[in-house]
Amino acid sequence: MAGSLAGIYLDHNATVPPHREVLDAMAAARGEVWANPASVHRPGQRARAELDRCRAALAEALGAGLSPRDVLLTSGGTEANNLALRSVPGALVVGALEHPSVAAVAAGLEREGRTVVRAEATPGGRVSEEGLAAAIAEATRIAGSVGLISVQAVNHETGVVQPTAALAAQARAAGAHFHVDAVQALGRIPLDCLADADLITVAAHKLGGPKGIGALVTRPRVKLQPILLGGEQERGLRPGTQDPILAVGFRAALARLPCALAAHAALGPLRDELEASLLALGRELGIEAVRNGEPPRAPHVSNTSWPGWRGPELCAALDLEGIYLSAGSACSAGTATPSPVITAMVGAERAASAVRLFARRGPRCRAVTRRRGGLAAGPGARTTLNTRRPSKPLEPSGS
Which of 253, 286, 288, 360 could lock 207 by a disulfide, CB 3.0 to 4.6 Å apart? Predict the structure, then answer.
């Protein structure tokens, strides 16, 4: 990625800078596959072939006996999650720590009269088998059966890896379909966690691909219903003209999947070192910072709370120091309420001071703990912070 911003970017959970191979592949394709993929003429056939190649690449990457026909291309993870939750009928059980594109849909369905039960999470950030069993029992008591259970593979704020294999077995025993939001898992942890899923959501931009394309992957036994009408694209389940250029970029990102997995596996020690250094710095400054989320965690994510600060305030202070991170999901940015994920785990007070970072390779990542002006200045002192920005350009993803 050719970046123009200065500083250290630690917000890859929000989005990953597009990889050079992705940009090059998309640029090369722009003059070749511009036609409407639904057209029957030769240019349309070339465009449609790129969609087919993207589906095949994703099915191969996910494994688990999936075929290209199981891949439904969407505009991203949010649309895929909406389609999964809205098109599978029956009572719905969701984890208490889901991404807004699941949590908000569940709340909307509940307002529309559908039975929705939330499986409680532990203070460490996991949906336990006991918690899911209680939610299944409650949904069955209300509605007689459960149609769909939805749990993410990796939490978007804490990086906690959910026990999807065990939860999928519970879903099968209850006669329910099992949906896994794998947006934060693709390219970051091994995908054997998806082997028993009936529906899988992914998005290209979390893998260093383009924004605007993702997929809902479903087993043949799942019968989806469209939530939009107006065309026969994607087997009539997702109307609208597809962009073959985005499909080219998605496929180029998927080609880097082995490299991405290896790079992320190596991030664990760096994340632990960075996290320990930040917590030690907090103690040095009289701040009893604490980690949010217990193992197993994806190797790149750290979420910590800093009593006395507000999460967005701390992010703004660090931004002036040239360190870019977030206080939670980018899809909830702009809201005044603390992170619902951290609130559900450990309460609103600790959630109000939570920040999330994505560890990455490179010696400059360790420089984070040396840029202490923002923390040392204290809450509410943003106008007095050292505003000198580093002279080097923003570093791209090391994965």
Answer: 253
